[in-house]
Amino acid sequence: MRKNILVIPGDGIGPEVTTWGKAALEKIAEIFGHDFIFDEALMGHAAIEVTGNPLPDETLEKARNSDAILFGAIGHAKYDNDPSLKVRPEQGLLKIRKDLGLFANLRPILLFDELLEASSIKPEILRGTDILFFRELTGDVYFGEKFRSEDRNTASDLMIYHRYEVERIAHKAYQAAQKRNKRLCSVDKANVLESSRLWRETVQEIAKQYPDVETEHMFIDNAAMQLIKNPKKFDVVLTANLFGDILTDEASQIAGSMGMLASASVGESTGFFEPIHGSAHDIAGKNLANPLASILSAALMLEIGFGLKEEAKLLVDTINEVLKEGFRTNDIADQNTERYKVLGTTEMGALVLKFLSQKS
Amino acid sequence: MRKNILVIPGDGIGPEVTTWGKAALEKIAEIFGHDFIFDEALMGHAAIEVTGNPLPDETLEKARNSDAILFGAIGHAKYDNDPSLKVRPEQGLLKIRKDLGLFANLRPILLFDELLEASSIKPEILRGTDILFFRELTGDVYFGEKFRSEDRNTASDLMIYHRYEVERIAHKAYQAAQKRNKRLCSVDKANVLESSRLWRETVQEIAKQYPDVETEHMFIDNAAMQLIKNPKKFDVVLTANLFGDILTDEASQIAGSMGMLASASVGESTGFFEPIHGSAHDIAGKNLANPLASILSAALMLEIGFGLKEEAKLLVDTINEVLKEGFRTNDIADQNTERYKVLGTTEMGALVLKFLSQKS
Ligand SMILES: CC(C)[C@H](C(=O)O)[C@@H](O)C(=O)O
Ligand SMILES: CC(C)[C@H](C(=O)O)[C@@H](O)C(=O)O
Questions:
Q1: Are B321 and B340 in contact (CB under 8 A)?
Q2: What does pTM read for this prediction?
Q3: How far apart are the first and last CA of chain B?
């Protein structure tokens, strides 16, 4: 198979981890005889530094012409500390999501048995958890009109949804639920928000077309609680952009660490694959970041982007093996024990490649 | 001390649990020789049924004339299942918050040692946690303009903040932090939302007036994760209405159960005290609800509303004792063991009163 892959390392720990996602794809291409052609582009703070623009035209152009995108992370402390800056790294990520029509963000909560103890949640609560989040990605308060009064004393963002936006992601989520455990939980705040009432109404309508799937509606506050209390009760979770942002980060504690979670954004054409973690400036450049989420993003690209199930499985199995052998990055090592071999970013990435090589 | 207390039982399990919050106040009055005069009023579905209005004028009038309000819960399945209904129970709660100027919602995460094991989170992660949330309560997307297009296909809610709204709650939160561990974490989504940028800017300004308090700014997605990963790192958490709604429900898992958390809403005049749990229609009327959050709401009324520290402490200590003796309601009983004496709502409420009587 021949594919054009665009790599966008981004900011903070983005470049360090994306190196290994890309390397894993190269190794897979070698093992299975695929032809993956790589290009690279700038986004975020990295792009502002060079071009003044968080999403340069050239990046968007390259993105449009690629079959899939492997992305790292975005954001920089400078902007976080100065809310008044007008040009901001995150605008690049939001714009590429919108321009490529990436309306569905899939975030599987993949639980490695070996990491059950790395979580702050009790293993007996976690065991057996398998959740697939569908987060809407191109609507909501993220893209509604922003306003700041001239005296700077009033600010607003419009939380807005159109019925078709809810419909198209609901269909995707229901179709996924049909292939899984046939349960779908739609999360909103319909007791307060009009946009959530539209969300709930629309999901209720779409649900009728999938009578084999059991639908539940839950308020976001309750969902944030249930996710920790009893994660096993969830199968597919369907939710809006902002609520999905919050719930999936929270759910990273189920997987033991944010450093283990990947996401796939799909929609109209090119798929976009990225770790769910952020740019983590505090550990950037220190060889401390966990490269496994980027490698798992590569696995999602293989499976969801290219339909290469066997290849994706090989990556996931290899990571499992590495963990079984007791290798950990800092974020997933249980601090209280001496039983793990704790590796840096480079060492962990290289080890996964070595294990992969031994399989070919 | 002479005080007029308005009891608003509300919907679902509201009446069952509020009975015990009120009874606890009566017992405290008896023990300490106070004069608490009670009145009762309707709100929510209960009020719609009788008057067609979720917040009848009479209730608002009584509320204005009371020194404190003890509230139960709000909401009904009928409205949750039918997003198109125009008159909704929750409107009553939102309107009373707004009309009484209850802009600061204090939610202490009180950790009973005895309940460390009732949580889904590991006891060693929880031990020592002590968080006080300040949730803004009369602004945000809760009160911004709502819109539904004529064809019903577009819906929106305006997420909006004014600087003074952020300032007044920030002052309250900083003042509380000064009396606690001198750390304040302000939670927003300033990397995406303009209203959050105003929030962050304003908190940065106010922070300068409290140089003895250490300020941290955190994005809501990260906060939802950190709260589970390392709850001990938080002291005072300051956040907007919507984010506070989500985070405090999530934090209920720290306390073992939502059935153990109370909140105080304060602002311009009369204080409003309520459990953070909802109306829980599924268990309403079954003698299954936990009355302790209502009794703890009464304790907050004594402490925050009336400045009666000793009285409040007696209630909390008594609950501690009841738990130490192995008594539990269903929600806080560890399902896997036989070691607890599991009680219904009435039995638990009566037991707390009995323990209280023995102290007087
Ligand atoms: C960086 C930020 C804009 C982004 C978001 O909020 O969508 C991130 O948190 C994510 O979840 O991908
Ligand atoms: C019932 C609902 C309107 C309310 C809210 O969202 O504020 C509740 O969840 C709460 O937290 O008090």
A1: no
A2: 0.96
A3: 18
The active-site residue, picked from B221, B232, B309, B354, is B221
The pLDDT tens digits for B96-124 are 999 999 999 999 998 998 898 889 999 99
Pairing of strands B146-148, A146-148: unpaired
Task: State the Cα–Cα distance between residues B351 and B201, nearest whole angstrom.
Answer: 49
What tokens does A11 get? Answer: 């900011």
Residue B11 a catalytic site member? no
Q: What pLDDT is attached to residue A270? A: 94
The domains located in chain B, with CATH, are 1-102+262-360 (3.40.718.10), 120-254 (3.40.718.10)
Q: Which of B187, B194, B283 to mutate to test the interface with A (most CBs of A within 10 A)?
A: B194
Which residue's CA lies nearest to atom 5 of ligand 2? Answer: B245
User: What distances in angstroms separate CA B50 from CA A56, B53, B183, B276, one per listed residue?
Assistant: 61, 8, 47, 25
pLDDT digits (tens, 9 = 90+) for B231-267: 999 999 999 999 999 999 999 999 888 889 999 999 9
Extended beta strands in A60-210, E state? 68-73, 104-109, 131-136, 146-148, 154-162, 183-188
- The residue nearest atom 11 of ligand 2, judged by CA position, is B245
**For residue B110, what pLDDT is reported?**
87
User: Could you tell me what percent of chain A has a pLDDT over 70?
Assistant: 99
Instruction: Give residue A98's pLDDT.
Output: 96
Of how many residues is chain A composed? Answer: 360
Bridge pairing between strands A146-148 and A154-162:
antiparallel
Q: Is the CB of B90 under 6 A from ligand 2?
A: yes
CA distance linking residue A141 with residue A159, whole number of Å: 4
Cα torsion B97, B99, B103, B108 to 10°: value is: -30
Q: B125 CB contacts (<8 Å, ≥6 apart)?
A: A120, B229, B230, B231, B232
Q: Produce one character per residue of B137-157: b if its CB has 16 or more CB atoms within 10 Å, e if not.
A: bbbbbbbbebeeeeeeebbbb
Instruction: Match 């909390």 to its residue by tokens.
Output: B316
Q: What confidence tens digit (pLDDT) does each residue in A63-101 have?
A: 999 999 999 999 999 999 999 999 999 999 999 999 999
